[in-house]
Fold this sequence. Notes:
Layout (H helix, E strand, L loop, with lengths): L1 H17 L5 E3 L2 H8 L7 E4 L4 E5 L18 E3 L7 H11 L4 E4 L6 H10 L4 E4 L3 H6 L4 H22 L8 H14 L4 E2 L4 E4 L20 E6 L1 E3 L2 E2 L2 E6 L6 H19 L7 H14 L11 E3 L6 E5 L12 E4 L2 E4 L3 E4 L2 E4 L9 E2 L11
Parallel strand pairs: 1-5, 3-4, 5-6
Antiparallel strand pairs: 1-2, 2-3, 7-10, 8-9, 9-12, 10-11, 13-14, 15-18, 16-17, 18-19
Helix pairs in contact: 3-4, 6-7, 8-9
Amino acid sequence: MSEVYEARRTRLRERCNAGGSAAALVSRPANVRYLAGAAPQGAVLLLGKTEDLLVCSGPPDDRPAQGRPDESLPVRALPGPGGDPAVAAAGFAATQGAESLATEDHHLTVVRHRAMRSVAPGLRLTDLGQAVEQLRVVKDEEEISCLRIGAEIADQALGELLESILVGRTERHLALELERRLVDHGADGPAFPTSVGTGPNSGRRGHRPTDRRVEEGDFLSVCLGATYRGYRCEIGRTFVIGTSPADWQIDLYDLVFSAQRSGREALAPGAACRDVDRAARQALDCAGYAEHLPALTGHGVGLEIDEDPQLAPTAMGKLDACVPVTVEPGVHLPGRGGVRIDDTLVVRPEADGGPELLTITTKELLAL
């Protein structure tokens, strides 16, 4: 993996050089992880003029969690507690003879920025912007493999839950059980707080589980995700509890299912992000549910659960191959509940079979 991290750092260095900076400081944790592998909490990465350094506040753990570090990358641990790796890295950059340092201003606080200026007053600080996030959008096959394994784990956890007795159990209890099952099957942990909504809570994006108990005839919506070696995916499904679904439940489910299928089918290299959103949103708009729809119908996933690209009405840009995204349209009717269907897919060209579906739990409307 060392050559992979080195290649990523080389691409970033080329961007920095093109912008007039010979050195860069990466402080956002997911970006450090992308460029240096598993790193201690709070570590920063210095792309120096003469040498790259991983700067830590203390000695690195011999057993890093959630992945492997880049063992070829020199590590510089601060001598005492309370030091700031970002401030120390600015000093190292100056020592290496750098005249300017590109920093992630969207992540650094004003206080840290001022401290960096004070420790290296001759160093010109510039803004690196979203350069690393832009590099992270397109995934390599090893990254996609981690997402694929995470999706398999999430599918397993959800499948086992569906085989258990659900009536009378609380949303909170079901969410905790799902998160335990994720870990049992090999996940680092949940990719985000698991959402379980029943009855009037179903179909709400980001619903936080409550002590409401599952009742006969409820819609049950579940959204969960697994983290595997730092990479995060998600899946969302909606079911009916106990009895045959009512007519309104069938109609609403069929509508959301159709919208989600349209969004999935629109995924292709070169497709505009807003067009994918429009494909998933159009049927729901036409059916009169525009005011009940979320602000976006999908987003990128990877080292974070909500990455670029965004699939939204005002989104800019187009999709590339090997970009993993979610497609997750949903409708929530206040006081009644709703439906949400969520998959993680990888954008692939038609010659390679089109979008690759990572989350494969059935989307049939099951009565549990």
